[in-house]
């Protein structure tokens, strides 16, 4: 019997995956991300590239993309500690809802002008590219080589894990507006009901299933608590939650992220033992997804819309995303450099390409153009934003120094280490600093009051000419501080 019908496609797929991984390892040295390499490799293997493979199965790509995104969100949720909610939950929720809406509207307006689209089609394109991508954010923050401060890292990670439902809702809403017969009067009602259903059922099923599975995990016999089998248990139960929520009419993306977060925080060491296996599942999902999405696009088809697509990407990166971030983070007293960094790391990845398949399957006019522009936006984002995360982290001073970097540690935390319980007045008296009200307050409490927001390692406040920096935390309380006092020229003489 001839088994080449299995062997040949498997050989091609494995060779493509292997070459992409090797190329990604080499390109990582110069700052290019694995995800970008997978996407380009898929394009090169397609009909316009040396591979010459013809692939146009949008239904299969849509199915694989959704499953892959579910696994990636599950992995991200498992690794999200509830302690990060102290600094990142409120701003992330605003960015994941209002921020996506503002970004979509402004980008859609730019698309209308640059691509000569109707307002419905322009807003549909804005919705498609409106959310940051969990796969890109999780992967590139992990491989960027910088350790971000907790407030910035938590905001970016939670936002990327929770903003997909809003993008899906907006995409489906504008498709409905385009495809529903004029004058039917049901469009707005359907949109509002879909919004409540997506978020309500996604939250309810995700959190509820998380509690059930975490209890089951904690009651399993020890011999079944190994990393490999535990990873398989988590992946299969997470995909069951994802699909069940979708069948019920809720957001599977939100449900599986919340499911992973609940299980990860309640499952203890047994769940953590599966992180290695889950990391492998997530990377395999990203690789297959980006390769497949790259195969869908013919580079020659992108040429006709390349310039306006670059314009849409520029509007998104330099106007829509920064405006939305500044507006949403204004109530939370983020530093200006933190806001600029969060604005820049609005990475687009597989989600916009998967969402761009929706109009193709629904028969929306100009759907092919929308898909090509979404692909170009993702490509530009991965090239320009994805390759500069490390540089931007250092440029905007949101990166913490490595433990063995003594010079960097002194630059961030100062030359002296202070106990947070020390009275503030005693410090002022010892170093000749200006007297402060409430001098009897411990330094930790005085700094927390001055910050006016949850403290994180790396926060700074001024005390006269001195600078106090948060050096070590114990839960939500400041434990140790650093002190830096600038020397005047006369003191250096």
Describe the structure.
The radius of gyration is 25 Å and the shape is globular. A hairpin with a 2-residue loop joins β4 (460-463) and β5. The model is unreliable at 489-493 (pLDDT under 50). The protein has 2 domains: 54-400, Na+/H+ antiporter like fold (Up-down Bundle), CATH 1.20.1530.20; 406-492, Uridine Diphospho-n-acetylenolpyruvylglucosamine Reductase, domain 3, CATH 3.30.465.10. It is built from 23 helices and 6 strands. The longest helix is centred in the middle third of the chain and has 33 residues, at 187-219. With 493 residues, the protein is mostly helical. Helix content is 69%, strand content 6%. It starts with a helix and ends with a helix. The protein has helices spanning 4-27, 34-45, 58-78, 85-115, 119-128, 134-143, 150-162, 164-179, 187-219, 227-248, 252-266, 268-272, 275-296, 299-302, 306-329, 336-344, 350-362, 367-385, 389-395, 406-413, 424-431, 443-451, 489-492; strands at 147-148, 399-400, 416-419, 460-463, 466-474, 477-484. The strands form 2 sheets. A 4-stranded antiparallel beta sheet has the order 3-6-5-4, with helices on one face. A two-stranded antiparallel sheet has the order 1-2. One of its GO terms (cellular component) is plasma membrane. The chain crosses the membrane at residues 6-23, 30-46, 58-81, 93-115, 121-141, 166-185, 191-213, 280-297, 309-329, 341-363, 369-392. Keywords: Antiport, Cell membrane, Ion transport, Membrane, Transmembrane, Transmembrane helix, Transport.
């Amino acid at each position: 019997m001839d088994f080449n019908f299995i062997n040949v496609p498997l050989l091609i797929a494995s060779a493509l995956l292997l070459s992409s991984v090797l190329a990604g390892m080499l390109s990582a040295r110069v700052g290019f991300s694995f995800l970008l390499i997978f996407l380009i490799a898929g394009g090169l293997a397609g009909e316009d590239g040396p591979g010459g493979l013809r692939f146009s199965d949008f239904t299969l790509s849509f199915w694989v993309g959704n499953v892959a995104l579910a696994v990636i969100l599950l992995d991200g949720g498992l690794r999200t500690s509830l302690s990060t909610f102290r600094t990142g939950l409120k701003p992330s929720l605003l960015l994941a809802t209002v921020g996506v809406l503002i970004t979509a509207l402004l980008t859609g307006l730019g698309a209308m002008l640059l691509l000569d689209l109707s307002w419905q089609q322009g807003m549909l394109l804005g919705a498609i590219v409106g959310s940051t991508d969990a796969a890109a954010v999780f992967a590139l923050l992990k491989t960027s080589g910088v350790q971000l401060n907790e407030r910035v890292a938590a905001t970016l990670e939670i936002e990327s894990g929770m903003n997909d439902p809003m993008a899906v809702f907006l995409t489906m809403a504008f498709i409905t507006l385009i495809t529903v017969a004029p004058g039917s009067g049901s469009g707005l009602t359907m949109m509002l009901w879909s919004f409540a259903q997506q978020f309500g059922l996604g939250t309810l099923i995700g959190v509820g299933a998380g509690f059930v599975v975490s209890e089951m995990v904690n009651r399993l016999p020890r011999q079944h608590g190994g990393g490999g089998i535990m990873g398989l248990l988590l992946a299969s139960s997470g995909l069951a939650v994802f699909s069940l929520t979708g069948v019920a009419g809720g957001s599977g993306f939100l449900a599986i992220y919340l499911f992973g977060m609940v299980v990860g925080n309640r499952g203890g060491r047994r769940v953590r033992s599966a992180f290695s296996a889950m990391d492998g599942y997530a990377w395999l999902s990203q690789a297959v997804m980006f390769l497949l999405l790259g195969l869908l696009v013919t580079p020659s088809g992108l040429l006709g819309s390349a310039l306006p697509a670059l314009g849409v990407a520029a509007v998104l990166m330099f106007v829509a995303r920064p405006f939305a971030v500044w507006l949403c983070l204004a109530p939370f007293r983020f530093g200006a450099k933190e806001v600029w960094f969060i604005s820049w790391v609005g990475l687009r990845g597989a989600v916009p390409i998967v969402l761009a398949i929706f109009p193709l399957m629904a028969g929306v006019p100009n759907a092919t153009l929308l898909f090509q522009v979404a692909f170009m936006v993702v490509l530009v984002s991965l090239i320009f934003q994805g390759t500069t995360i490390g540089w931007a982290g250092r440029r905007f001073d949101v990166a913490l120094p490595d433990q063995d970097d003594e010079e960097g540690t002194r630059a961030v935390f100062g030359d002296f280490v202070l106990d947070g319980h020390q009275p503030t007045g005693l410090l002022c008296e010892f170093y000749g600093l200006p007297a402060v009200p409430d001098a009897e307050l411990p330094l930790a409490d005085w700094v927390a009051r001055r910050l006016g927001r949850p403290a994180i390692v790396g926060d700074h406040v001024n005390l006269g000419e001195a600078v106090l920096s948060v050096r070590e935390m114990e839960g939500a309380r400041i434990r140790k501080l650093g002190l830096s006092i600038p020397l005047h020229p006369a003191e250096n003489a």
